[in-house]
Structures are given as C-alpha cells and as structure tokens.
Amino acid sequence: MKLAEVPFSIKLDASDPICRFSGIKNPLPVILQGKIDLAVKENGGWSIIDYKTNYYETEEDLNLLINHYTNQIRLYCRIWERITKEKVSVGELYFTGTGSVIVNI
Length: 105
Fold this sequence. Notes:
Largest sheet: 5 strands, mixed
CATH class: Alpha Beta
CATH architecture: Alpha-Beta Complex
Distance between the termini: 21 Å
C-alpha cells in the first residue's frame, strides 16, 4: 500500500513524549499539523519517506542536511505510529537530486 501527501493533525498534551521529543515546551495542549510525503506499507511495516529538494555539492553538505532533517523524519515516524497504531520500520530522506538516505529511527 502506498499513501502520498498524507495530511495529519494531532493534539498533544504537554506531557506527551512526542512533545518532549520535538522540543515543544508549552504547558497547554498543542495541535501539531503537517503532511507526510509518502508512506509505504511492505512486509508488515511502514516506510515513511520525506522528499527534500535541497541542492548540495559535497558529502559534507549532505551530512549537514541529514543532521538538519533527521529529527523531522523521526517525528513523522512517531506520529505515524501514533495515528495508525502500526509499526514504522524505516524513515527515509529522499533527496530529489541524488536519492535516498535511510535514517535510524
């Protein structure tokens, strides 16, 4: 199964582990909204793919981008598991110019 551009909206209390992970420090509940570019279910687990259009020239630039976006894809994986109540196996950043980077979730 493949699902593209899946919008989400999730209410999180201040004590929610997703709030702590994402660095949200608000004593009141928050609504977190976003869009997951691609979710693919294979072999009993989900892969969450986030497309990135950033241009880079060097391996060092790529590593900076990976470091910058890693928490975002991890957050999307946790939100997907919360919403679907199913396991995410892989979080992936897909750089449109060069291809995929698998992120340890």
